[in-house]
Amino acid sequence: MNLITATGLTKIYKRGSEEVRALDGVSFSIEKGDIAAVTGPSGSGKTTLVNIIGCLDNPSSGVLKIDGNEIFKDGASFSESELTKVRRKFFGYIFQKFFLLPTLTVKENILVPSVFQKELTVTQEKINEVLEILGIARRKNHLPYELSGGEMQRVAIARALINSPEILIADEPTGNLDSKRSQEIQEILTQLNKERKITIILVTHNPEFAKIGNKKIEMKDGKITVEN
Amino acid sequence: MNIFQISYKNLLRRKTRTFFTVTGIMLSAWVLVTLLGFNRGYENSLNNDIDAMGFQIILTAKGCPYEAATLMLKGGTGLRYMPQSIVADVDKSPEVSKTSAMLMHAEFDPNKGENGGTSIYLGIDPQTYPEMKPYLQFQQGAWFNENSQDEIVLGFEAAELEQREIGDLMILPGSETEFKVAGILKRTGTQDDGMIFLPLKALQKTFGKEGQLTMLGIQLKREADANLFEEELYKLQDVQVVSMAQVKNTIMSLVTSAKVIVLSIAFIAFLIAMFGVLNTVLMSVFERYQEIGILKSMGALPSDIFKMILIETALLCSLGAAFGIIFSLAFADASEKIIRYFLPFTPNGNLIAIDLQIAALSFAAIAAIGIIGGIYPSIRAAQIRPLEAIRAND
């Protein structure tokens, strides 16, 4: 069953008088429970693609459906508030930088989404479960500066999971980590996909990391060159 | 976890900057509360001083009304005199309830203090003066009797300065006559505390001022028309009529001019504090540009971000205002001493009267102005788009 369906997604940026086609009529589908690895050289449009899938940006044209809901259609632009509501419903995000709030403890950082999403009730059990899965339970009262890079990314993953998202967008999640920590994060993502059936859209430069994906989307010059 | 905790902890991120911003707001609050307290305290004290005079109108020899006002409130020098016969003319008026004739005399006393000082004597009529000033109470003794010519009553501070007790004999500076202390007054907090009271006739005789008065205190009947009576008094020759209301208005108008200037300065201090808040919060928003974008990707609406930044501003302003109020209360005495040092005339009593109403009003004003200063940074923060924040990361 298709969870995400994109048809003719196009994104045009204006750079002075010049038009840049960051996405050029991209069409694809991702099924529920997939790990979709989006790869390609710098400037190929992979980050633009996941930003649009993750409702962080509007496409210039094309259609995007998530779980049967038509999110974008024919370049209709959504306000920031409308995009936020969609993000709340479907997505969790992990970035290359961890973006933890430096004055909040691990546990408080994980709870930040619940501060803004009133409909989200986070029980102590849920917090403990997420902390256990990510292996950071003993660090829950520590501040970010007391953690290693790998631990900080685990906290960022825990924060992305706290609202039980259907789709996890991971944009170069191991870009700031050494190979050992990268391996750990890969294992965590694979485990989350396997055990919790979370659909993961992974953007990476690393061909080894991309191998965890059961679906591969390779991009070049704003177009999909390989999809399997 | 709630939005207040996030805002509060954000302020702890740059402790030094937060400290200086709060200090700026605190100083503005301190100035404002002290000024409002002074506004109220000065007026109350002046009213009390004037009410304590016991008269509604004073008649003095013709001269400058400001000099007359000073004479009444502080016992000024360079006195002018009017004939005692004027008392009978005033007493004839049906508007008058009571009158009390007084002669004030100032004499330099070389033994007073380190470098000498002026002793002020007030010759009073023992029959009428105590009736007009019923609040004067004795620590020891009582008023001299009607026919007494060699007794004096000392104000509280005068007795302390002279170190006299009941029954002590003392020769007044500038005279050869010996007087016995008949009574010592309790502290009143008015100019009466420093006064040496003598029977009117005795003072006139001792200093060669027979048949002369410096002032006549007039108490009107309740139903009397004060304005009409004042006009009537001006028909008398060579007298100056000073009503208490007039004195109050004159002094208050002088003080109001000074207050307007000081309040303008306070307003500027306020504006500076507001722009300080704006600058601090805006800088903090720019520093957290990416972080705010990420919060939005985690489900924060623009209104949530607006609220979060405004709460930070409100916390800064509330802290500053609270400390400012505490400091203004703690240093009210010191501020009063400074004001007394610089102002040419200050009434007795508390010059700075800070109450709950003033504290609440100041807190609300500072919080409101500070929050206004925080609106622009809050809007800027609310407008940050998560995508731009993520791109800034690249």
Q: Approximately how much helix is present in the residues of chain B?
A: 40-55%
Specify Rg of chain B, calculated over alpha carbons: 31 Å
CATH C-level class of chain A is: Alpha Beta
Number of strands of chain A: 10
**Oligomeric status of the shown chains?**
heterodimer
Structural class of chain B: alpha+beta
Question: Could you characterize what this model shows?
Answer:
The complex is a heterodimer of chains A (228) and B (394). Chain A has helices spanning 46-53, 80-90, 106-116, 124-133, 149-161, 179-196, 207-210, and strands at 2-15, 18-31, 35-39, 61-66, 69-73, 91-94, 167-171, 199-203, 215-220, 223-227. With 228 residues, chain A is an alpha/beta fold. Chain A has a single domain (34-57, 90-227), classed as P-loop containing nucleotide triphosphate hydrolases (Rossmann fold, 3-Layer(aba) Sandwich), CATH 3.40.50.300. In chain A, the strands form two sheets. Chain A has a six-stranded mixed β-sheet, sandwiched between helices. In chain A, helix 3 (106-116) packs parallel to helix 5 and helix 5 packs parallel to helix 6. The radius of gyration of chain A is 18 Å and the shape is globular. Chain B has 394 residues and is of the alpha+beta class. Chain B has two domains: 3-48 and 258-393, no CATH class; 63-237, no CATH class. Chain B has 14 helices and twelve strands. Chain B has helices at 3-11, 15-51, 65-74, 86-91, 129-132, 156-162, 200-206, 226-233, 244-287, 289-297, 302-330, 332-342, 356-382, 386-393; strands at 57-61, 82-83, 96-109, 117-124, 138-141, 151-154, 169-171, 178-185, 196-199, 212-213, 215-220, 239-243. In chain B, the strands form two sheets. In chain B, strands 1, 3, 4, 5, 6, 7, 8, 9, 11 and 12 form a ten-stranded mixed β-sheet that branches. In chain B, strands 2-10 form a two-stranded antiparallel ribbon. Classes of the chains: A alpha/beta (228), B alpha+beta (394). Chains A and B meet through helix 2 and helix 3 of A and helix 1, helix 10, helix 11 and helix 14 of B.
